What we know:
It is a single chain. The protein has 143 residues and is α/β, with parallel strands linked by helices. The protein folds into two domains: 32-87, no CATH class; 92-143, no CATH class. The chain has five helices and seven strands. Strands 3-5-7 form a three-stranded parallel β-sheet, with helices on one face. A two-stranded parallel sheet has the order 1-2. Strands 4-6 form a two-stranded parallel ribbon. It is elongated and about 55 Å long. The chain starts with a helix and ends with a strand. Residues 79-90 have low confidence and may be disordered.
Amino acid sequence: MLDGNELRALIRDVIAAEIAAVKREAAPAKAMPAEHRVRIANDADLAAFAKQVLSLANDPATRSAIANGSYRFTLEGGSSAAPASSAPASASPRIDKGVVTETLLLKLPKGTRRLQIGAGVSVTPLARDKASSLGITIERMKP
């Protein structure tokens, strides 16, 4: 059973996640690029690209798109012969912190069957019900 402080912290997390979701929905939708062209000619370019990916991953929708391969990166001057579905079949979205809500589940890419969550991630009861109805298995990863 949860004590009062744990319950308050959980409620605070859920409210914060819902407020963030409402703010994201109210903001004008940003179209995700079909592909993101990258030029990597040296170590400095590679480091800059890594920082850019980390920055993009701050947005849960973009992070999920990167993880499932729908947000593609291509090298400038390189061949774009790779098929759009070149992401590994085992790739599944992963949430490492925060709260999994029904809204978050509805934003997952179509066809998602598995969601990996970190050890400290909370899942709302409504999200558990929605995951079940969508056929999504929530797997808690070990720390």
